[in-house]
What we know:
The protein is built from 8 helices and 11 strands. The protein is α+β, with helices and mostly antiparallel strands. It has 3 domains: 6-127, DnaJ domain (Helix Hairpins), CATH 1.10.287; 136-213, Sandwich (HSP40/DNAj peptide-binding domain), CATH 2.60.260.20; 219-308, HSP40/DNAj peptide-binding domain, CATH 2.60.260.20. Strands 6-7-11-10 form a 4-stranded mixed sheet. Strands 1-5-4 form a 3-stranded mixed sheet.
Amino acid sequence: MDFKDYYSALGIDRTASDDEVRKAYRKLARKYHPDVSKEPDAEQRMRDINEAKDVLGDKEKRAAYDALAERVARGGSPDGHFQPPPGWDEGFEFRRGPNQGPADHADFSEFFSSLFGEAERRGAARQNYKARGEDHHAAIEITLEDALNGAEREITLRAQTVDAQGHPKWDNRTLSVKIPPGVHPGQFIRLAGQGMPGHGGEPPGDLYLEVRIAPHKLYRVEERDLYMTLPVTPAEAALGAQVQVPTPTGGVVEVTVPRNARNGLKLRLKGRGLAGKTPGDLYLLIDIALPPADSDDARKAYEQLAQATASFHPRQHLGV
């Protein structure tokens, strides 16, 4: 089977517009129509012209054919015999017109059938297929304040849809999303009926938005719990202290730093995390901040501390 050049069949360039395709077809059809033509090969030429018009007059078929022609030109056909490579039509959808059936293409070539025959049968099967629309998934990033208090946000999503002719296209759509208080990272918000359209009169699918919480300057989110680094001075860590801490929902609480607190010590404020059936907690991670020795008084204080703690060996466990 040889690769058919549909452009040559119509006598046009590969850059021909849709209007030029139609004009070329009409001109040749007038010349070779069996009812009026005196040419000896009129019937075969008319079949070739109809086949070329069927492919080049359909945007999706033409795009698929052009892509395949480029692929063949690069790789050639062994021994001059052409066979469509597996998956050559991936990403394209071919559908018959509303009044077309298998008999409409019965006289077309083996080349045409090898390319579009099975693809059109799949398209026809899809037209009679009944099924609920597919669910879609997307991500939505919100602030910690949105997660704590709830909010209503507009989001714009880009999704592939199908036009009236069955051709895939990309559309943007804007949706209003209600964010309930207490949502946490990884949770899904369901928007009923906002997925892909159903087939054969069946309902559309749903859209599931995976919640992501944007980084916050103070708090880190893990599930429903929140974590915050709490800087304290060496004196506060050693002697203990009462310090004020901001809360995620606003306001301030007083927290007890125990005596001899170490770096990384975790203090728990129960129920101060994200809301839920079991609310999350707020964890404060102690971080001992060393004052700089940038004054005589500061240096003298460090010298006195060194003398007072001369028996303290923080690297004893290293064995040196």
